[in-house]
Structures are given as C-alpha cells and as structure tokens.
Amino acid sequence: MQQALHRSSLVPRGFLVESACYEGDKAVITVRASGTDGLCPSCGTVSRRIHSRYQRRVTDLPLSGRVVELLVVARRFRCDAVRCGRQIFTERFDEMLAPSARRTARLDSIVHHLGLALGGRPAAGFAKRLHGVDENEEVVVRRQFRRAEMIRYFERIPPVLVAIESCGSSHHWGRLLQSFGHEVKLISPQYVKAYVKRGKNDAADAEALCESVTRPSMRFVPVKSKEQQAACMLMTVRERLVTVKYQLSNAFRSYAAEFGIVGPAGRQNVAALIKRVLEDDSLPEMARDLFRFQADEYAG
Ligand SMILES: [Zn+2]
Fold this sequence. Notes:
By secondary structure, this protein is of the alpha/beta class.
C-alpha cells in the first residue's frame, strides 16, 4: 500500500495541519479538526461556543519508516440547549479517531496480519502480546493487552489474518476472533519455535507467529467448534473412566487374592468375583466393609 505524499493524506481526513516537527526519531504533527462546530452527544444540538482546548496524542500511519504522532488540539464546547443535562462536551472525530483511542483508525486499517501470543497462563486476564505488520512486513503494531482491551481492539479493526499458537485456550480465542470476521490460523508450538529469533518471551513469540503465518510451507491446526471441543472432551473423560474402572478391578482382585479368593481373569468375570467376596462371611468385619466400599465404587 503506497502512501502518496499528498498534503491531504499526510493526516487523516477532517484534520488541518498546524505545524510539524521532529522529536528525536518521531515526527510530531500538530493538527486540529477542520470543522467550526461540535455536536452535543446528549441532545444533538450544534454548538460553536468553545469552552476550552486540550491536547491528545495519537499514533498515525508511519511516514518513510518514521513513527508519526498526531498532537490533536481538541475543543470542548458548551451545550446551550435548555433541556440538556450536559453543559460541556468534547469534540468527536467520528470514525477517524475513537474517543479514547491512542491510534488513528487508518493506522489499524493497514495491519496486514498479526501474531497473537496468549501468554503462559491461558486463564490469566492479562499479558496478551500482539505483533502486527503491514503488506511490506513493516512492523505497525507491537503492544501488550489486557484481555478486555484485546477484545475491544479486535472488534474495532477491519478483518485481518491472526496467527495464534495452538494451546489450551487458543480454540476459544480463535472462535471469538472469527466471530468478529477475522481469519484465524492456529500454529503448533514446535513450528513457531523455529521462527523465534531471540529469547523466550511473549513478545518474541508474537513476532515469530506473525512471521511464520505467511510461510507457504506452514501447517495449521484447524480451530475447533464448541461441538468438536465437546466431542474431544467426551473421548478423554471416557478414557479416564475406563482407566479408573480397570484400576479398581485390579485392586479388588489383588485384595481378594490375599484372602485366598481367586477368580478367572477378564473384565467379564469381575462381577462374579465381587459377588463371591461379598457373600463370604468368613472374612473379618473390617475387610468385608472395605470390600463393600470398593464394590460400590466399582458399580458407580
Ligand atoms: Zn446538549
């Protein structure tokens, strides 16, 4: 996406440039809205009565590889409507700039694909790392999110390709981001590892994910639906139950053998063995109680 250097595209539509300077490596452009009035968000009345001005700093599209920060001189207007409860309101910039955003909307729209590292503790509400590049693989997003912030971010940006390391909660996140219209690719940790350049932290992971997702040879794990997830759960729960039954019958058999009660091998013969043991009144009272306890466990 070639950015033409028209004066009009230097800053988002609807803004006027007042001045520009460099602050270290950063270009800082001071802008203000081109309109002369504001619309009260409570009652919709148009007002030209300026109460005061304040400044917002937001990041905009990079220019020749340089970070561009907009210093937005925003206005507060007075609402004169008699019935309106609001006396003062701040200027809105509509779709160019969300009310509390730190970045302009058009900066988010150039993100081509993203790597999202969910962090070591999937249940934790914080430490989601994002690494995003534009079409030329230039980094345009590198930041850390809390859970709620991340959800808001993905709700707001245009549909994009997101790479997530396949792990415990990645299918859940995958489904959520898909519901916002994004394309989600899950990548096995061992494939991601090959792209980690330095260190083992979430920032490096996010970068590696972002890089690996566009490789033609990369293989992806499909995002599971909730129904598929339930089917997987059924399998593992069932396996666990079978294992527990097996362990119980083995234990029962070996305890019974201690009292000289031995039955033929095989799962189909366990019930008969249990019956024999429970009916044997030559066993001490405590042993009979313990056998009964285990028999109940086996039946359950
Ligand atoms: Zn009003």
